[in-house]
Amino acid sequence: MWSRLPFGEKLRAELGAPARGHRLESSPRSRVWRAELSGTRVVVKQLIDAPEAAERYAREVAALKLASRVDPPVAPVLLGTDPGERVLVLEHLEHRKPREDWVVDYASALARLHAATGAEDANMLPAWSGPTQDDIDSFLGLVRTLGVAVPSGARTELEGLLGRLLGTPGHALLHGDPCPGNDMHTSSGIRFIDFEQAALGDGLVELAYLRIGFPTCWCATAPPEPLLHAAEAAYRATWREATGTEVRDDLADACAGWLLRGDALVQRAYRGRADHLAEVPDRDWKWGTATARQRLVHRLGIVSRMTADGGELRCLGQLAADTRRAMLTRWPALQPLPLQRP
User: Fold this and answer.
1) Is 313:252 a contact under the CB 8 Å cutoff?
2) Whole-model pTM above 0.90?
3) Do 47 and 29 meet the contact criterion of CB atoms below 8 Å apart?
């Protein structure tokens, strides 16, 4: 019932009394309702008591305010907040079935979102955090367990990668989880929702989602190569139009960073609890559209192909190719990621 909505005196004074409340499906970290205010549909979202709830709420509010600079919009309008109850009242969006080439419009919308912020916004959100030394240790441990020889220069190369990822200047407004399901395909374009993990950083780490298989997402997919190239070109063109600058050409570092992260094999509730890469030799597990081994084989293939011409990740490229080959030899029934989202 609408009376159960977390709609206190502050919100009622600002927005009026809600009606026709209906609970919607949401993540375990929030409760979400559809309701009406003066006959207009809205969404009411409350972040429930859980670890980091206050931080996630603050990130979402800040990100929505920053995203509101973009026109046409790339996020729902934030209509009201109640920080004491961690409640947001948002514009209701009507989602339509995505087109087969949805990744092109998605990439363009992502570029416009990223372009919403600049150096002057450096303190508005936390900085993006990349892979760590522990991730390197876990990855090399997995490789050795699979019987693959580690080149002598691999660790030095990976430590250099970490340095580049952490040292790359970037003030883009990162969504933090720009997954299928967090993109609303509306009649006026794509809008992103659920900014609880928003950060500031280099937009390449999220442009890489398309190529590396949506690493933080239940809906892991591998778009066909022509669509992938069209989407990346759309991102670069949109970024250029919005900022007057060019996107750096090389996605290899960003993709390699996602390869190292074992936490990108499990949903958010299980991250930070275990060495998930170390579990891969002993068991496989399904998450959404793919298993952990399917996701990892895809990422290994992408990184090996992107580094085939040598450069700063030459050792990693060979190591990725050898590890992928070892996995497919051990588990020959592994299937590629699906080409399309459900």
Assistant:
1) yes
2) yes
3) yes
